[in-house]
Amino acid sequence: MAAAGGGGEGSSRINNRVVVVGGGVAGALLAKNMQFHADVVLIDPKEYFEITWAQLRSMVEPSFAERSVINHTDYLTNGRIIASSAVNVTEAKVLTANGHSVAYDYLVIATGHADSTPRNRKDRLEQFQQGSQKIKSSRSVLIIGGGPTGVELAGEIAVDYPEKKVTLVHKGSRLLEFIGQKASKKAMDWLTSKNVKVLLGQSIDLDSISEADGVYTTSAGEKITADCHFVCVAKRLGSSWLQESVLGDSLDQKGRLLVDENLRVRGHKNIFAIGDITDVPEIKQGFLAQKHAVVVVKNLMRLIKGTGENKLATYQPSSAIAIVSLGRKEAVAQLPFTTVIGWLPGIVKSRDLFVSKTRKEMGLNPRKA
Prior knowledge:
By secondary structure, this protein is α/β, with parallel strands linked by helices. The chain has helices spanning 25-34, 55-60, 65-68, 72-75, 121-136, 148-160, 181-193, 286-305, 343-348, 355-361; strands at 17-21, 39-43, 48-50, 69-71, 80-82, 86-89, 93-96, 101-103, 106-109, 140-144, 165-170, 197-200, 215-217, 223-225, 228-231, 271-273, 322-326, 330-334, 339-342.
């Protein structure tokens, strides 16, 4: 699949071939902003990018995904798109699963977390329809995982379907362990007030679960009856393909790429990394990944123009700010000096989930797909 214009294999232009691996919120934004300043090639196994923080709303309101699932061709009009996974990288090329060998002058790794979503937008929208129908037709729902995904899905279901029995099982000692205890407690109290049953310190064997009999057994031996279940545990990083590549030595023990203050992979002056795959010491969130993209766009522009190494933009890790939606109107927010819950943080995030803002940043109609 290819969009008009751009370059890649066989490009004749010198020093401005930018290859972006990964078409999530960070990689997509970077490719969009670089497309008229370089020969851009975007390599992504999907034909679309998804505003990931809108996924849970789309589970209960599938039409919401019409604006949050966006074909790469909608915003990347002057670049090339290769709908395939990258399988290796050398000092000069990226190799893909479908046989492409793509030369680069500058490389940006933005593969985030590994996911198994469908290849095309139509099938992804259908997946949301199926998930919504599963929730609608169930009297009881089990959610496995109490991170932001599990908490937000529980909130969406509890608000839209208050008559349904929702149970959330989390192996940790508190919800939302990626942020502070005050936010965790506020989220716990809110879910409990919505009649969501939360079981902490317990897990469910993901290899043995089945919806066939509707009974699930936790690690503590507690039996849960549910008509359907959703797995909301953390996904593995999308860096396994780098282990045997020239970047293998640049991975830490958790599989994250080691980057410097310019977001360049350590030891590689022309290779950058952005988003969740980096070892930047901050909470991994979509809006921060977008900030990474903005910094790297500045640096690519300066390098292509020959501005010089000493004038590269730097990235400062963000403080622990996070907003977790609780249904359509409320949210819990951890700010530098306080933690709040209710309609005020809900106004900031929960109503539109920043979808209009993100679409505008991508050069698209904010309100209409």
